[in-house]
Amino acid sequence: MRRSTLCGIMTVALLLAGCASRPSNPPLVQQDHDYGYRLSSWQAERGDPEFGLVVTMSGGGTRAAAFSYGILEELRRTEVRTPSGTGRLLDEVSIVTGISGGSFTALAYALYGEQLFDEYERRFLKRDVQGDLLRLVLNPLSWPQMLGGSFTRTDLAAEYYDRILFEGATFGDLRRRGGPFTNVAATEVATGARVTFNQNTFDLLCSDLSAVRLGRAAAASSAVPGVFAPVGFDNYAGSCGFDLRANVDRVFGPEAANGPTGRINLRDREFVALQDGVAHRYLHLVDGGLSDNVGLRSVLEGLEASATSERFRAVSGFDKLKRFAVISVNSLADAENDWGTQDKPPNVVSMLIRATGVPIDRYSYEQVELLRDFVRGLQHLRGADGQPLAVRFYAIDINFEAIADAEEKRYFRNLPTSFVLSDEQVDRLREMAGRLLRESPDYQRLLRDLGAGR
């Protein structure tokens, strides 16, 4: 075959392949409150029904994934007294939230359970994910998929995450695994809304989450603007019989008649925007850190709802709890710079990174403080009988600022936010996470109350 003919055939093939489309999330024919991967239909029998243990995992690339994994390892090593005897604290975890880098650890644990501790290092933490993704984008064999159409390099990343870690698993598979309920989130760029990957949110979109792959959710949650393209999802809102106002009334009861307040009011406005299936027929999702970089917003909304609605406390099972603990795994790091010693201003790229990071870091800090405020306020909650609920709360914040040694703290604060770290950096993050958790006064109080070591 002549060379010019071969080149012509390849050119035509590339042009034809340029119509590649992104994977679609299927529509939901009829909304059903008992269907799908949602918290309200989750297995209440996991762990002690009187003990709610939530682990929230922040964003921050492999640094966040490794730091969060170290917390899971420490919970796995910790034995406590349970109603059925001595057990591991890890098995008492009922909810895990994950953002960006933390979403990989959250989803992988929900999918693999105990198997995670044999494979996660090799398959993800100690892998040059960043280099692999770059090589995929530069590989000419990948170009046909990305020429034209709606398939982007982020969709390529989602397929890669499926191959190396999630094996094509979907949220329907998670529903059958019986692990902790895992809630990861991304940010919708047009509305600014936080989109959580659970069927409750996908009811708004009249879409069936069960067919959505975990790799696609992780790709959306970690799609840093400017580095990755937004991940596209279809919005079929208005086609499945879902009624937002009726659903609010069902969950919150008579209190909903006065309208949502505070943090829930913001969430309600996001839901209303997502319900407009005409103006927002297509959703474009990017890094979840833009709307919640420590994974605490869902927890704070739940606590606010518990404080204001007896119906919500009953529906969520909150009124049955005797202990409620939140372990916030905050891997945010503020790299040092010498700008204050220089007369010359920082370059444009550095300023853009700083301009984005400062608001996110400050907002993340405020969320942790809000958690503590809620914990103090909820101490006075009363049940339907007027009696105190008598729930013991534990707000456990794990972050690099708690490191006592200045040099050691500097080391961790200067770790990059990327998807590649050395094996030594990964191991030090895991070890430090366990150490900080053991040294936390709130965590020590929780262990004493659970009878650890007795």
Write the layout of secondary structure elements.
Layout: H1 3-17, E1 51-57, H2 61-77, E2 79-82, E3 85-88, E4 93-99, H3 101-112, H4 116-125, H5 129-138, H6 143-146, H7 153-166, H8 171-177, E5 181-188, E6 194-196, H9 199-204, H10 214-221, E7 231-234, H11 244-252, H12 262-274, E8 282-286, H13 297-308, H14 310-316, E9 323-330, H15 348-378, E10 392-399, H16 406-413, H17 423-439, H18 441-449
Parallel strand pairs: 1-4, 1-9, 4-5, 9-10
Antiparallel strand pairs: 2-3, 5-6, 5-8, 7-8
Helix pairs in contact: 2-3, 2-17, 3-10, 7-10, 12-13, 13-15
How would you sum up the global shape? globular
Q: How would a textbook summarize the main sheet?
A: 8 strands, mixed
Report the span from N to C terminus: 80 Å
How would you state the average pLDDT, rounded? 82
Low-pLDDT stretches: 1-18, 348-359
Helix content: 40-55%
**SS class:** alpha/beta
Order of helices and strands: HEHEEEHHHHHHEEHHEHHEHHEHEHHH
- The share of residues in extended strands comes to 5-15%
How many helices does DSSP assign? 18
How many whole angstroms does the radius of gyration measure? 23 Å
Would you report the number of β strands?
10
